[in-house]
Amino acid sequence: MAMAKGNSSVETDISKISNSTIDTDPVYHRYHIETAMTADMSNLPNRFLVEVSRINLLKLIIKESRDYFGKLDVILNRPCVYGVFSGPIGGFAPRPNHCVGCLRCTIQHPDVVTIKHNPEWKSWGDTYLSPKLVDTILTEASTGAVPVKGQGYRGRFGGPGWDRIWTDMSEIVRPTRDGIHGREFISTVTDIGSKPMHLSFNSKGEIIGTEPATLSTQLPILFDSPPQTIKSAKLLNVLSKSAQEIDSLAFMPINGILGCKLSGKHLVPQVNSSEIELIQKLNFSPRLIEALDISAVKSLSNQNIKTCFRIDFDEGWEELMHKAFDIGVRVFHMVADYHGRGDGNFIRDLIIKTHKDFVKKGIRDQVTLIGSGGIAAAEHVPKAIICGFDAVALDTPLLAAIQAQPKGECISSEFSNFVLPKSFTVSWGVQRVKNLCAAWRDQLLEIMGAMGIREVRRMRGELGRAMFQKDLEKEAFGDIDGYE
Ligand code: SF4
User: Cα of 99 to ligand 1 centre, how many Å?
Assistant: First the structure.
């Protein structure tokens, strides 16, 4: 395997690779992800069970026929505008797949109709990546488009996790409005690596001192390695190929890369200290390697290989991060569990703290922070970036996109179980993942357009452009006795 040689630090090494990948083709290509309708393999169970008492329905029809004799439009009137009772024999064969749970029918005819939650539907998610979110992901993965329900927002105006943040989308700051179809291009290019806090030039205008040492991806959306419980070559192929096609990066265990004979600069091999030797067996030079422990960081820095350090938000993660920084690591992959929790906090608070610490030290631009865990919907991506991540690496949403069914609560990578669809093909999976990324990118563009931000790099850490439920509540109720 050919590795870059002769430089003394991790940063310089990345710079070399970065320069070597500069596009020399003068033709401008606007970044675009090809989408295509890709139907689900198996349909999700209906969200609601619609139970109709046929005897009571018959009694109702007889009564209404008597009361409204001759007024067919009244007698045949159905109580559901969503068409649940609009089949050929109406309420005798309801169509629960149309039911949205508005409960109008059961309020109007409590003796005839009962609406219940379908317990089977719940088995397609867990308490964090809820079946409702899975449903949205499936729509995005099959259409590649932003899901439009036409019902407005029907959820809560605050809540746990990312729902405690609102983004500032005032009309007045919308020079790039209409993100997807807007007049001005909004860039989602993300730099991964280290940039100096300033550039220095000599009298000839040449750069002296430290130069930016970054590689770029077209999206701030990367792919994390699958849960340790899933050993599927097909899945690794799906992640690798889709990352390659959308110009992203896929983190992957080095054994999986070697075992599946995968290759390409879009792959980020993950190694622990006992797997360093395996790097020589790769048939490509990776742009970045992920160290899974601090000993691996040391070995990689000795070998002059550009490194990303994966840190779980467990006790002592901050000291580990500082240690790795001192060794020369400038890219950190910070990992919460699949429910976004780590070290007793939600990932939102952890990243805000980390981002602010680096800002306080005056070295924020020297590091890249990538986050995983708890990113389960399109709007979580911009919120995570506003809180301080440069990019996110997706985990469970990618599995949801290819209809992997969770078995029980899925919290940690070590113990979460998913059942992959039996007959899925790599090409089907790749298109589903590409569709999901296209839909999430479009939603990112919408939010950035609405906020008047023209490139995602400028959104990182823009906490002033977000509103936090806690702050607003304090502002409104802080003076009232008993608040908090
Ligand atoms: S709950 Fe609403 S959507 Fe469902 S069947 Fe009744 S009226 Fe139709």
Answer: 5
Please identify, by atom number, the ligand 1 atom nearest to the C-alpha of residue 85: 5
* N- to C-terminal Cα separation, the chain: 60
Domain count, the chain: 2
Burial annotation 118-132 (CB, 10 A radius, 16+ → b, else e): beebeebbbebbebe
- Neighbour tally for 214: CB within 10 Å: 19
SS3 371: strand
Q: What is the number of the ligand 1 atom nearest to the C-alpha of 100?
A: 3
366 near 192, Cβ under 8 Å?
A: no
Query: Are residues 70 and 14 part of one domain?
Result: no
Among 46, 47, 49, 50, which residue has the most ligand 1 atoms within 8 Å of its CB, making it the best to mutate?
50
- For residue range 409-445, what is the model confidence (pLDDT) as tens digits? 999 999 999 999 988 999 999 999 999 999 999 999 9
Tell me the residue range of the domain where 249 lies. Answer: 10-18+32-37+172-474
Ligand 1 centroid, distance to 91 Cα (angstroms): 11
Residue 159 in any domain: the answer is: no
CA nearest neighbour of 251 among 307, 213, 315: 307
Give the pocket of ligand 1 (CB within 6 Å): 50, 79-80, 82, 84, 99-105, 115
Q: What is the mean pLDDT of residues 327-350?
A: 96
Helix (H) or strand (E) holding 369: strand 368-372
